[in-house]
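Late entry, evening session. Most of the bench is empty. Finally got around to the prediction I had been postponing all week. Sequence below, unchanged from the version circulated by S.P.
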Amino acid sequence: MANNNNKNNKINVSEMIANNKQKKSFSNITEKLVPALLFLITTVSILTTIGIIYTLLSEAIEFFRRVPIWDFFTGIELDPFGADPQFGILPLINGTIISTLIAMVVAGPIGLMTAIYLSEFASDKMRRTLKPLLEVLAGIPTIVYGFFAFTFLTPILQAVIPGLGLTNILSPGIIMGVMIIPMIASLSEDAMTSVPGSMREGALALGATKLEVSLKVVIPAALSGIISSFVLGISRAIGETMIVTIASGSSKDFTFDITQSMQTMTSYIVEITSGDASTGTTMYYSLYAVALTLFVFTLIMNLLARYISRKFREEY
């Protein structure tokens, strides 16, 4: 009887060793496959970016075969629907930059002051209440912002500013600023919160007020994160489409009057792709040249944000 038990135990141990080897073999195969699978997933975004660049370049080259590149980047006449079409991009760049500046004038100070309050003055309970409410703004569709600018803000501004057009660049610029506030506030607040508490305590121990600690200790220490949030906000404003399309109209005049209608690069692309241009026409290829310019703008902004973040980063 005892011999039979020992024999059974030997068989069970042998089976266990075999099972463990099989499991280890399967585990080793999985360990080798997972990195390869993750690498393929990672390359999807890279390949997508390469595909976008290839598409933009290939179509833009065809445009520049028909329109001199110098005329495109220096021309102030944009009239793609005229009998003698003109494709100067400066009116679009002008509209994009002005709308972005208006947005940042609104979003920059409000976002930064909101971040200072949440980081340095608000209680934990108040921060937990206000921050989610603030971030609700970031979840509102931009088309809603666009109609809000056109139907609510513009009539109010018209009562204050004589001569303000029904479509103008001022209203969408302000609303874009409101939309960007959560981004700047949240990123700046994260940067300020990461500043070690010992720096605050040291400054307070030397007799500084809480406001002085915020302005002279916390903000300089979190400067890289704050500047990066501003640059990302600028990049977001440059790429915004629906708000300016709805509230700014489609005037292609080269002007600096913010009470008048202007068109941005994104809203031009929307206009051309909405069915007014036939495939293969110069107007059709012009949208790729404008899209390529917009891509370069946003790429420069993102690279600038990364450079500033590394340049002014403080390590504690």
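Two things to note before I forget:
The mean pLDDT is 86.
The radius of gyration is 28 Å.
Will write this up properly tomorrow.
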